[in-house]
Amino acid sequence: MKFHLAMAPALFFLLLCGISRGQSFVLPDYVEEPDSPHVALIVLSEKWADVREISGEVVKYNLKNYPETELISTRVSMPYLSNLPVLYVHTFANKKDAMGYYDRLHKSKPDFMQMNIVESVWIFSKGNLNTFLLEESIKRYEPFFQQHYLTE
Fold this sequence. Notes:
The protein has helices at residues 2-20, 51-65, 95-108, 126-135, 141-150, and strands at 38-44, 72-76, 86-92, 118-125. By secondary structure, it is α+β, with helices and mostly antiparallel strands. It has a single domain (36-150), classed as Alpha-Beta Plaits, CATH 3.30.70.120. Strands 2-3-1-4 form a four-stranded antiparallel sheet. The model is unreliable at 1-8 and 10-21 (pLDDT under 50).
């Protein structure tokens, strides 16, 4: 086991060298994973700078409407998605639960979902979130999300 851990930095270095020498890095495709854990990303409008207040409202909403799920909400930096911190809400057991959360947000319209405070809400499986984080762009995920989450 120690040998494998000792090899990790060397493998990482070789990977970086290969990429830096002009070799392309192919990102995995997004895949449908309905039974895997899911997360929500809530992107705030840059017009609303009080991220702490809005974050607190999301926590209150989650505690009131999902007390049994024990959702965790944290602020994360994703400058390729927003200049403001993004609210990372996790973990939903599966796609159905995450989309229930998404639909409820859009139908019940809590205060933070009004007046253009929230720019967008995205649902990801954990695997697809990893791909998105590697890619650092929502462009390729948008059509996948539309097809596999919003049209079913």
